[in-house]
Design goal:
Keywords: Flavoprotein, FMN, NAD, Oxidoreductase. By secondary structure, the protein is of the alpha/beta class. It contains 6 helices and 8 strands, in the order E-H-E-H-H-E-H-E-E-E-H-E-H-E. It has one domain: Flavodoxin domain (Rossmann fold).
Length: 220
């Protein structure tokens, strides 16, 4: 089993999404320890992808590197590497904190790398069609406030965006483990313990047939 593990938080060792995504990977490896496992890990905050440029996007689509600078050629190679890793992995684990109602800029830069028309999706007469074979996606979602209620859902451009953009590529099997309200100091430890227990109790050994549902923790 090949796991592609992506982290994007700026919080380092204090990051909740990093701790969650690491626990998810540990649970997967434990449940499938009889397999030949490989983990490809990218810390996008420590090593941020270049923001997508018009030059790089055109070069990827045309497969023509003529006239490109060394930096532009490196950007094109990085795009191809990100796409190749996405196609090659069996499971994708992403740590996704909420910053200003949405995802970190470095994570968006990686998404812009993998979302390439003609490579990972294509336009048809009936709309976009994903070109990536469906596979389990595990998202470790963290946010300081509560954004899963009917009143606050309108502010969620984090989980909603991730599900939408992954669906564009053909990835529908999305499981979200959510730690929210962690900015509420008096409830922080209770909420973190709850999502940790949810991850540990999840059925990790079930051949990766994951449904597109989330596992929220809501305050009683």
């Amino acid at each position: 089993m090949k796991i592609l593990h992506i982290d994007s938080s700026m919080a380092g060792e204090h990051s909740i999404s990093r701790a969650m995504s690491s626990l998810i990977v540990q649970q997967l490896l434990t449940a499938h320890q009889q397999d030949e496992n490989q983990v490809i890990y990218h810390d996008l905050y420590a090593h941020p992808p270049s923001f997508l440029s018009a030059v790089a996007m055109k070069a990827v689509r045309s497969a023509n590197l003529e006239g490109l600078s060394d930096k532009e050629q490196a950007d094109v190679r990085a795009i191809h590497q990100a796409i190749d890793e996405l196609f090659a992995c069996d499971v994708l684990v992403i740590g996704v904190p909420m910053y200003n109602h949405t995802i970190p800029a470095v994570l968006h830069a990686w998404i812009d790398q993998i979302c390439q028309a003609g490579k990972t999706f294509r336009y048809t007469e009936t709309g976009p069609e994903g070109l990536v074979a469906n596979k389990p996606i595990y998202i470790a979602s963290s946010r300081g406030g509560i954004y899963s209620t009917a009143e606050t859902l309108q502010y969620d451009q984090q989980e909603v965006f991730m599900k939408s953009i992954l669906s564009l590529l053909g990835l529908q099997d999305i499981q979200i483990f959510r730690a929210e309200g962690i900015g509420l100091v008096e409830q922080r430890e209770q909420r973190l313990l709850a999502v940790q227990q949810q991850i540990q109790a999840f059925s990790w050994g079930r051949n990766h047939q994951v449904q597109a549902t989330s596992v929220p923790f809501m305050a009683e």
